[in-house]
Amino acid sequence: MKRVVLATLIATLSGVAALTQAQADQASHLTIYKTPWCGCCSAWAEKLKEAGFSVAINTMEDLDLIKQQLGITDELASCHSALLDGYVLEGHVPLEAIDKLLDERPKLTGLATPGMPAGSLGMGEPDADTSYVVYGFKSGSTQYIPFYKVGN
Q: For residue 67, how many other CB atoms are within 10 A of its CB?
């Protein structure tokens, strides 16, 4: 009887571990939408690969339709868009903000680093003057929530 219970417990724990690993694997897969001529998008993707993310890149001539479908307004727009575990990432979102997003799992559509701030991930090395805000957003809303701040 004890062996059956122990075997059942081990099988259950193995299944939970496999499910948890599958969820972690899925959560670390990033799909990026970028234009063919944007080098900083590729640099951002490389930084994410170095951090352990699996990255797929979809190169498109025009990103307007995908940005519209993802709920990205003109105020939040940057040079590339991405999907990660049900969230949208717009622009050069830093790794720390992505980690915070995945840890906290807020009820947001995603995060955006509007424009292309100098020193942001993929946009050169940060220096003492590097400062920008990553905003949380919900699709269809024009209210943006400061989610993560870089610099002063």
A: 20
* pLDDT over 70 percentage in the chain: 82
Domain count across the chain? 1
Model-level pTM? 0.80
Q: What share of the chain is helix, strand, coil (3-state, %, to 5)?
A: 35, 25, 40
The amino acid occupying position 78 is: S
Secondary structure (3-state) at 9 = helix
Predicted confidence (pLDDT) per residue in 6-22, tens digit: 344 344 444 433 333 43
For residue range 23-64, list pLDDT tens digits in order: 444 448 999 999 998 888 888 899 999 999 999 999 999 999
Tokens of 5: 């219970």
Can you tell me which residue has the tokens 């946009």? 123
What is the distance of C-alpha 78 from the center of its chain? 14
* Type of residue found at 113: T
> What are the residues whose beta carbons fall under 8 Å from the beta carbon of 38, sequence distance 6 or more?
79, 80
Strands of 145-150's sheet, edge to edge? 54-59, 29-34, 81-84, 87-91, 110-113, 132-137, 145-150
- Residues 87/98, Cβ–Cβ less than 8 Å: no
